[in-house]
Amino acid sequence: MAQPWRLDSWRGKPILQVPEYPDTGALGEVERHLHNFPPLVFIKEVRDLKAKLAAVAAGSGFLLQGTDRVGAMTKTLKTLADAKINVTAMDAVTSGDGRFAAIFWVKPKKVAKAAKLLRAR
User: Fold this and answer.
1) Is the entire prediction scored with pTM above 0.90?
2) Residue range 62-85: mean pLDDT, rounded
3) For the chain, what is the domain count?
4) Which helix (H) or strand (E) holds 67?
């Protein structure tokens, strides 16, 4: 079972790349300062994403990943549109380093057809 999260729980994780912090006092001061800021990702967003990925894993949606560029989803959306399959909802995100991921859904009665067209695994 996973251990409960704590503010310093990251210190017990293996760190493969980390800068040296020779002044531990200054490091502690920065950590205390950062502690006053809101989280970068809110827990509701994490839970929502986990639920969406679970739906994809259960076969009711699709996860598409690729190179982030203009028109990255065009071919996929055109393939579905040509087959008269409407995308009913979509969430997408870019990593900032040239990659993207999108989760999208089609109507339940069209999932099998869309999976075959997209050669989904």
Assistant:
1) no
2) 91
3) 1
4) strand 62-67
